[in-house]
Hints:
heterotrimer; C: extended
Amino acid sequence: xxxxxxxxxxxxxxxxxxxxxxxxxxxxxxxxxxxxxxxxxxxxxxxxxxxxxxxxxxxxxxxxxxxxxxxxxxxxxxxxxxxxxxxxxxxxxxxxxxxxxxxxxxxxxxxxxxxxxxxxxxxxxxxxxxxxxxxxxxxxxxxxxxxxxxxxxxxxxxxxxxxxxxxxxxxxxxxxxxxxxxxxxxxxxxxxxxxxxxxxxxxxxxxxxxxxxxxxxxxxxxxxxxxxxxxxxxxxxxxxxxxxxxxxxxxxxxxxxxxxxxxxxxxxxxxxxxxxxxxxxxxxxxxxxx
Amino acid sequence: xxxxxxxxxxxxxxxxxxxxxxxxxxxxxxxxxxxxxxxxxxxxxxxxxxxxxxxxxxxxxxxxxxxxxxxxxxxxxxxxxxxxxxxxxxxxxxxxxxxxxxxxxxxxxxxxxxxxxxxxxxxxxxxxxxxxxxxxxxxxxxxxxxxxxxxxxxxxxxxxxxxxxxxxxxxxxxxxxxxxxxxxxxxxxxxxxxxxxxxxxxxxxxxxxxxxxxxxxxxxxxxxxxxxxxxxxxxxxxxxxxxxxxxxxxxxxxxxxxxx
Amino acid sequence: xxxxxxxxxxxxxxxxxxxxxxxxxxxxxxxxxxxxxxxxxxxxxxxxxxxxxxxxxxxxxxxxxxxxxxxxxxxxxxxxxxxxxxxxxxxxxxxxxxxxxxxxxxxxxxxxxxxxxxxxxxxxxxxxxxxxxxxxxxxxxxxxxxxxxxxxxxxxxxxxxxxxxxxxxxxxxxxxxxxxxxxxxxxxxxxxxxxxxxxxxxxxxxxxxxxxxxxxxxxxxxxxxxxxxxxxxxxxxxxxxxxxxxxxxxxxxxxxxxxxxxxxxxxxxxxxxxxxxx
Lengths: 290, 260, 278
């Protein structure tokens, strides 16, 4: 096409933005998300952005605080390594809060790997807060059987689970002596990247009135809001931002807060690319009309 | 609440009655109308395109096990297989669940037989890949690239791997049709697929495809049910609002909310 | 009710007997005329599907409640166990299918047969290491200190946490790249509705990250303009616009699922594996 004016030249250049090669996009993503992660390790200091905990995160915090001392918290780790990036920091910060508040808790999960990961967090934090396995917390491990097994747990924990992850009978675990059913559980906190929440709502919450709180990945976050509104969920942490909000309330710096800068960079890149794409489309239309 | 309250029984009773009424009306010969579903119309076009290019079709039934959404996906897979079988084209169906694997293999085998080409069915085209979400996704995108599929169908329950599958299919230039009741994955499918069937259109697909009176009547009954549920919700909203002024209505409100 | 019996011989005998009964029943079913077979399946489907609705829907505080409490609810756990046992029969089928497909690739030297060799090697290694870690962690030597691992435990840790966990997270991380390229390609403002969608998406995206919070943090928290802060506006959009829409779609989805469940339960479902009308 013969360019007759500078404006035509500019429009032609701009129209190229509507078809940026996807490989360029992938490289940009890699740089913008990778640099803030690597930078602190090579001595480059980056700004810390402010965090303002939302209502859903504050409700989660209050739900943990308000669990009576004679009840335990069930930490359901229904996530796998794929969603570790989001559910991991959430799980870790909530376990730290539980220990800080002096509550007893049980780790379990409908996924194979989740309970193992949570156990590692618990063991690391137990040294800081003086928690002892079997007395202050225990781990049931991977639970199979879905909703039917959760119902059985609610009715008779000892008959359903029988032994912990290491094979120790529940009757020999000191903290489990007075924990027999859902009536002895004050709160269920679930961490997941899949739609498993309805299983817990249908069992713990609907049938036995146990409070629920959830930490979920960003992708399924919007799906959980109806449950928050009806009161079936007492609190909600969505994605890495939820983990960062919780860390803000605990006044610690963990995986959530550290990931906020790369996440922000990624979001801004998407916004800029979408804007450029639309500018390119508009410019191309102008060129075609001329 | 370990068991249902009376209100739950009433609501389910009304909804089920309306659905069965729709089915019975249709069986008695009543003419019923379903609006056009562009995504379902495009299935035949997609199968034809893949056949012209001489490349296979990939049909993913998602992450579900033995559940309603997966059965619906398999019903659509049978339809796609019948179309593909006419031209002796392959339908590769990777699954994540071993129980569904057995059902899927039987469904495709019967579909090819009904189309008159049982010899065109290859048992190895129905594959159990893995029980793990992302291992399954890796396997599917590997199949897409190695087999160079020309058409992708994503029907069933999906989670985070939906965009991985759809975007990979987009990159290899396959025509893609998706349908899921997992509403959170719908935006990803809309962004990366050529046609997307949303929510309960997914459940209406079998009625649209087969024009079977039972299916058509069921879809119409579902529409009646939704009107009834909307009326019930609106009534409850009015009562809840009035109950803030007149405490006598609290008893009725408690009944309507199942005692909670 | 249905407590496990601690008698190995009796358990094995019961297992063999149940398998034999099942085989005989299926063989008889296979050899009867199709009409009769279909009727038997319809009756079994109806009875099997009747249990859960009866157990759940018979309300509290009625004349029927003793019936439910005495004859239905106690069977809830055993039936759940039975369903899990039936599903477990299919566990081996998946592995068998994988092995057949990949063995065929190798024997026929199809394109990419090397990947099939890698499949067998990694499956065998993972299988052996997992079994060894579970049943013989001290196979080669015992751990000499509290925080040390034996060679078997170290191998399991490398395979599971180093390889499997890392690979899972890696594939999930592809989403970051794909979301960016999909958003760039798909989000084009061609209509007024698309423009509205874009504005909403922009607000929600900025409300999810500290950058957005920082952009509007100067608006005082106590002022009447607090709603203009990105995180507040984002939360409002998600809770008041997104949520009703999601609920509306969910209504339709669940009614559709109920309809299909009814059709399957009453054997009204047609097509494919449900068989044709007789």
